[in-house]
Amino acid sequence: MRLSAALPLVALALLVGATACSGAPASGGTPVGADTIVLDVRTPEEFASGHLEGAEPLDFTGGEVAAAIPSLDPDAEYFVYCRSGNRSGQAIALMEQAGFTNLTNLGSLEQAARATGLPVVR
Q1: pLDDT tens across 26-47, in order?
Q2: 82 catalytic per annotation
Q3: Quick one: which H or E segment has residue 103?
């Protein structure tokens, strides 16, 4: 008898626990801190068509990433994205060669938006 009376309470506890742990974090996944710099390394046209709120445009193909590296803070945290993750990976490789260590390749714009929870500005 005791077991059958406790089953509804156990089921409720499991349901509440599962609900509390489900879904993405409020930030959308990867938290973007106050000191995090989000870099969009796509072309100016791609950036203009939609970008993450607060992202800084640095056109990798146009040489802007390489030119900006000396003026960037090597101790800051950087989230980098592009169209597919290719250019952001190349940008991160350049930054690593320059001594940057806190770098995250977010992949595409859509992946970056999901990972960070930041809205896309169009």
Answers
A1: 334 677 888 899 999 999 999 9
A2: yes
A3: strand 103-108
Provide the β-strand partners of residue 82.
108
Place of tokens 């960070």: 116
Cα 39 from Cα 51, distance rounded (Å)? 10
Distinct helix (H) and strand (E) counts, the chain = 5, 6
Question: Are 30 and 107 within 8 A, CB to CB?
Answer: no
Backbone angles phi, psi at 12, to 5 degrees: -65, -45
Mean pLDDT to the nearest integer, 88-104: 98
In sequence order, what are the beta bridge partners of 78?
Answer: 37, 103
From the list 65, 82, 95, 106, the catalytic residue is 82
Q: Are 81 and 115 in contact (CB under 8 A)?
A: no
> What's the whole-model pTM score?
0.76
CA 113 to chain centre: 7
pLDDT in tens, 67-76: 999 999 999 9
57 in Cβ contact with 47 (< 8 Å): yes
